[in-house]
Design a protein that fits this description.
Length: about 375
């Protein structure tokens, strides 16, 4: 089969980077349940854990490897032989195992985390990839803090690890530092200047410290990356990781980008709810794609436009992401059109005058109450003064 140059691989790290969030720890059975749903969603790679970090994480990688059939199962390691040995052992049941190894690439990390030099770090990176390659064919290398790394050193490192056998090269913006054009330029530079880059897939892994994780990931894809790493609901260290649902829906909405994934987008909402419940991490109501307000229209101007033609205010159909349905929320900012819509839904067809009368009394009620329920509307519609 011919390799499709426009296919974007989706790498889910909800169970690794996402699970690192304090309070979000899961048991192995909970992780297996999420892994099954990630498989149904159609992700290409599941990062199942960091096996050396704890016996629980090790066991989760073992059990997820047994549980899923289609996705590649990936285990994280540092550039340390002991980590790699444990990861190899944890992945022994995986049909498609991948080892994700790496080391810091910015001078900040090289000096202040590793107390080392660029030369020494380069050697350690290459040795780790070569060592992992003895056991597993599919090796992803991460150049931690690539967002702040010197681009020439980063290019040298990437070239060296590909020569050593890396099949995927991850360019993480570990601290969510980059602007979209900077991050895009970084990927472009690697694509144009690393001699053997065509032998590996470039992966984007962005954090959301400045709220730019999604924008940076898309900039990376526009400049040649073909794997995107993220989590469901954007959970992850500090301000989180890139939200998978956001990037996938951007590619689907902006078809002119010419990029596509294998994701069954209709599964997004249910999985988002599952992750939120199991990880005890509520989804903010205004979260793009999966937040409870993502398809709720509340101001009179928007409601009127939506009721005339939903595409006036809807760029994604809720059903495309499995969201129950769009809603017209009644508040003191709603207009007559929205009230008429809801009364008709409840079986009340009012004359113009009756509607004007009802609307007047509705506004008084809405000013004194946060939520207008169907019950309220029934009382409004059945009121003697109103008839
Ligand atoms: O953010 C990061 O740099 C990471 C790596 C371990 C891939 O999560
Ligand atoms: Zn990360």
């Amino acid at each position: 089969m011919l390799h499709d140059p426009n296919r974007v691989y989706v790498f889910d790290t909800t169970l690794r980077d996402g699970e690192q969030v304090p309070g979000c720890q899961l048991t192995t059975p909970e992780k297996i349940e999420i892994a099954h749903e990630l498989e149904a969603l159609g992700v290409d790679i599941i990062e199942a854990g960091f096996p050396i970090s704890s016996p629980g994480d090790f066991q989760s990688v073992v059990e997820i490897s047994k549980a899923v059939k289609n996705p590649t199962v990936c285990a994280l390691t540092r550039a340390i032989k002991g980590d790699i040995d444990v990861a190899v052992e944890a992945l022994k049941y995986a049909r498609r195992p991948r080892i994700h190894t790496g080391i810091g690439s910015s001078d900040m990390h090289i000096k202040n985390k590793f107390n080392s030099t660029r030369e020494e770090i380069l050697i350690r990176a290459v040795e780790a990839v070569k060592y992992a390659k003895k056991f597993v064919e599919d090796i992803e290398f991460y150049a931690e803090d690539a967002g702040r790394a010197d681009i020439h050193f980063l290019a040298k490192m990437i070239e060296a690890v590909i020569a050593a056998g890396a099949t995927v090269v991850n360019i993480p913006d570990t601290n969510g530092y980059c602007l979209p054009d900077q991050y895009g330029e970084k990927i472009k530079f690697l694509k144009e200047n690393v001699k053997n880059i065509d032998k590996a897939v470039i992966s984007v892994h962005c954090h959301n410290d400045l709220g730019l994780a999604t924008a940076n990931s898309v900039a990376g894809l526009q400049n040649g990356a073909r794997q995107i790493e993220g989590t469901i609901n954007g959970i992850g260290e500090r301000a989180g990781n890139t939200s998978i649902e956001e990037v996938v829906m951007i590619l689907k909405t902006h078809q002119n980008l010419g990029l596509h994934t294998n994701i069954n987008t209709k599964n997004f909402y249910e999985l988002s709810q599952m992750v939120s419940t199991q990880m005890r991490m509520p989804v903010q109501p205004n979260k793009a794609i999966v937040g409870s307000n993502a398809f709720a229209h509340s101001s009179g101007i928007h409601q009127d436009g939506f009721l005339k033609n939903r595409e006036n205010y809807e760029i994604i159909r809720p059903e495309d992401v499995g969201f129950p349905n769009a809603s017209i929320v009644l508040t003191a900012r709603s207009g007559r059109h929205a009230l008429k819509f809801h009364l008709e839904r409840l079986g009340y067809n009012l004359s113009k005058e009756e509607l004007a009368n009802a609307y007047h009394r509705f506004l008084t009620l809405a000013d004194s109450k946060l939520d207008i329920t169907d019950e309220d509307l029934l009382i409004l519609a059945g009121d003697k003064k109103f008839a």
